[in-house]
Amino acid sequence: MKIFNRKIVLSLLSILLSFLTFILMFGMGEIFLRLKNRDMKNYDIEMWRYSKELKRLSSDPEIGHEHIPNSKAILQNIPISINELGLRAKPVLSNQHNFRRILFLGDSIAFGWGVEEEDTVEKRLEALFIENHKNVEVLNAGVGNYNGRRSIALFLKRLEKLNPDDIILECNPRSAEKLKSEEGNLLLKHSELAVSFWIELQKLWSFASEGSLESHYRKVYDPNEEGFLEMKQSLRKLADYAKSKNIRIYLAMMPDLHQLENYPLVYIHQLIRENAEADGYRYIDLLPAFIGKKPSEVWAMPTDAHPNRFAHKLMAQEIFSALNY
């Protein structure tokens, strides 16, 4: 009996020692990563921090998540301020206005991830109008990790009171993807080590299950794919609303910046164009502005394919040409 009890004690001690060793190693790994990522150049970690510091789950499942009003953070070495309406901007002073109000909807590209606020497509577009002596306000309602459906739901359920004269929906090949909730768990919310490991697992799984980027998008834009069907329904819903309120609507199609030479996703641009124009949108294709450009010229960072300040300038110039009348 004593020998048996001793074996139990030794087994428990061994388990406890293994657990403590794991906790120690995990803690050391966490400290190492936090020190390593202090330069804010780890794209995945900075997007994780964005989700944690500036976003919250929405009470509306169709929206999914939304910006935390009146929040601030420094992400990827860029200061970001969210106003009382969840927009990336200074406070909106009045919903009643005697000037032309243009509202941008979209994802992290419209939001201006990786660039200063003054360099975003919205601020650059506003500056172009001012240079041409036109009284225009351009508002930025872009939110990271949105698709077309979420962008439109955000406007119809949260931002309708802004009474815009024009709505520009920024889309890109990811806009038809079906998105999941960002709720996560406590460990993934608070540990850089855990989230780094989880992100790498997701990348491996995505590559194993879907293969190349082009094969992934072929699946996304299958005529019967749920995310694509939801996007088309949302486009029509916004078009109907805009028509009832006499709002001008545009769809600005941004290319995927990974491969601009022999761009493989032209068929997606054409498909989106056909659906948008059928619903009454004015289609603005931003691909021509990027033809001949290298990733190093237009990427926010070598590991981040979001458009940089130069790319936002190109976007603003293309959109200004379509709206300047």
Give your account of this protein's structure.
This protein is α/β, with parallel strands linked by helices. The protein has helices at 2-36, 43-54, 108-111, 121-131, 148-159, 186-190, 192-210, 213-220, 226-245, 266-278, 295-298, 309-323; strands spanning 55-57, 65-67, 72-75, 78-81, 100-105, 136-140, 166-171, 248-253, 282-285, 299-301, 304-307. It folds into 2 domains: 1-36; 87-323, SGNH hydrolase (Rossmann fold). α4 packs across α12 and α5 runs parallel beside α9 (226-245). The longest helix is centred in the N-terminal third of the chain and has 35 residues, at 2-36. The radius of gyration is 23 Å and the shape is globular. 34% of the residues are buried. The mean pLDDT is 90.
Percent of residues in beta strands?
A: 5-15%
User: Could you say how many structural domains there are in total?
Assistant: 2
Q: Helical element count?
A: 12
What is the end-to-end distance? 93 Å
Structural class label: alpha/beta
Radius of gyration: 23 Å
String of helices and strands: HHEEEEEHHEHEHHHHEHEHEEH
CATH class of the largest domain: Alpha Beta
Low-confidence stretches: none
Return the CATH topology of the largest domain: Rossmann fold
What's the pLDDT, averaged over the residues? 90
Tell the overall outline. Answer: globular
- Give the tally of β-strands: 11
Helix-residue proportion: 40-55%
- What is the CATH-assigned architecture of the largest domain? 3-Layer(aba) Sandwich
Using brief descriptors, characterize the structure shown.
325 residues, 12 helices, globular, 5-stranded parallel beta sheet, alpha/beta, Rossmann fold, 11 strands, 15% strand, two-stranded antiparallel ribbon
